[in-house]
Amino acid sequence: MANNNHTCSLRGGKEDSRGALVVLEGLDRCGKTTQSTRLVANLEKLGHSAELWRFPDRTTSVGQMISSYLSNKSQLDDHTIHLLFSANRWEKRSLMESKLKSGITLVVDRYSYSGVAFSSAKGLDISWCKAPEIGLLAPDLVVYLDIPPELLKEEATEVRDMSSLSFKRRLAKTIRSSVVPLGRS
Questions:
Q1: pLDDT 10s digits, 120-160
Q2: Helix or strand run (H / E) with residue 125
Q3: CA-to-CA dists, residue 36 to 5, 123, 184, angstroms
Q4: CA–CA separation, 61 vs 73, rounded Å?
Q5: Among the CATH numbers 3.40.50.12780, 3.30.300.110, 3.40.50.300, 3.10.350.10, which is that of 21-184?
Q6: Burial bucket for residue 100 (CB in 10 Å: 0-12, 13-18, 19+)
Q7: What is the pTM of this model?
Q8: Cα distances (angstroms) measured from residue 135 to each of 47, 70, 149, 165, 182
């Protein structure tokens, strides 16, 4: 993901300033949606234009294929589903860029970091996982909600083996060691 040099609307009050791209990441059921919703509401109260976005975006054709996989209606190889998740972000890139340029702050519940972390925790090579993300919009801020897997709410998970505590521990370790540092570069 490229580094963007710009002035975000959260820092400057000019009408022509760019909106901020804020990403919330973390394990399933850690509170990303709740915190993202609260952040958008608070930004709007402060007079900022803000929108909540979620990935995967199941409204697109690629998103519908992902939804079918997540609800166990289709079987896909780990490489294939990783590329579909990435394609889902790519198909929204132009719209995201347009909204940011118009001064709208986008608060995103999951982004590239989740895709890389999930696939890497499933055993795919992390360098391979990062490759399709190159060129996506770089966030201005990434917030990682670091909740121990043992404290997460029980869930009726959609995906096969990704609800197990051992997978959640592996995923948390992957995020902390390999993915969170990406947001610092």
A1: 989 999 999 999 999 999 999 998 887 776 666 555 444 44
A2: none
A3: 24, 29, 20
A4: 15
A5: 3.40.50.300
A6: buried
A7: 0.80
A8: 30, 26, 31, 33, 14
Backbone angles phi, psi at 26, to 5 degrees: 160, 175
Whole-angstrom distance, CA of residue 5 vs CA of residue 162: 37
Task: Enter the tokens of residue 27.
Answer: 């394990």
Alpha-carbon distance of 118 to 81, in angstroms, equals 11
Place of tokens 């909106």: 19
Q: Write out the two tokens for 89.
A: 């972000």
> CB under 8 Å, gap of 24 or more: what pairs does 75-82 form?
78/119, 78/122, 78/123, 78/124, 79/124, 81/119, 82/115, 82/118, 82/119, 82/124, 82/129, 82/132
| CA 133/CA 77 separation, integer angstroms | 19
Q: Which two tokens stand for residue 147?
A: 């909740």
User: Cα 54 from chain centroid?
Assistant: 7
Residue that the structure tokens 């992902």 belong to: 66
User: Is 70 exceeded by the pLDDT of residue 80?
Assistant: yes
